[in-house]
Amino acid sequence: MAAARLQKGALVQRDRDHVAAQARAFLPDTARRRTEITTRGYKFVSDEPHGGKPGEGPTPTEYLLMALASCTAQTLRQYIDYKVDYAGDITVVIKHHEPEEEGAERYLERTIILSEEPDPDDLAVMHDIAERSPVTLLIQFAFSVRTTFVPSP
User: Fold this and answer.
1) 150 lies in a domain?
2) Which among 54, 74, 104, 124 is most buried, taking Cβ atoms within 10 Å?
3) Which domain holds residue 11?
4) Do 68 and 38 share a structural domain?
């Protein structure tokens, strides 16, 4: 059973699904919230504010917002460089809104600022492209989170 691990509701078969991306988080027992995270050899720190201090790195939610902002900008840049006659600066700001009212929906507000004003037809296409950027699609729709517990080697 080395190639497959039991998990809730399914059998994981690592050789059947393509791994599109991977990340690792390590939280030592000596740290309360400061987490070392890695992907493709890059190392980062994630932390939560506590004790009136800001923490030692962005929160997990802030990393998610940064992923959405950078993916949106990169996806738009690909379109602009390929299809449009200009290539101005692109700024993307993402804000996470938590409702004050009970039962109201939380949401993300995405603001895209272009340094040059595009043609209205190009702007409509850019709006559609932003809505279909890879990270947007990951967080817009519900998807399965497959959790597996394995013993430490």
Assistant:
1) no
2) 74
3) 4-46
4) no
| 40 domain-assigned | yes
Question: Full-prediction pTM beyond 0.90?
Answer: no
Residue with tokens 């006659």: 85
37 and 64 in a common domain: no
- State the pLDDT confidence band at 69, using cuts at 50, 70 and 90: very high
CB-based contacts of 96, cutoff 8 Å, min separation 6: 61, 65, 106, 108
66 plus 36 within the same structural domain:
no
- Average of per-residue pLDDT across 54-60: 92
Q: Quick one: 88 and 37 in the same domain? A: no
Q: What percentage of residues in the chain have a pLDDT greater than 70?
A: 80
What lies within 8 Å, CB to CB, of 28 at 6+ separation is: 36
DSSP state letter for 55: -
DSSP state of 104: P
Rounded-to-integer distance, Cα 130 and Cα 75, Å: 7
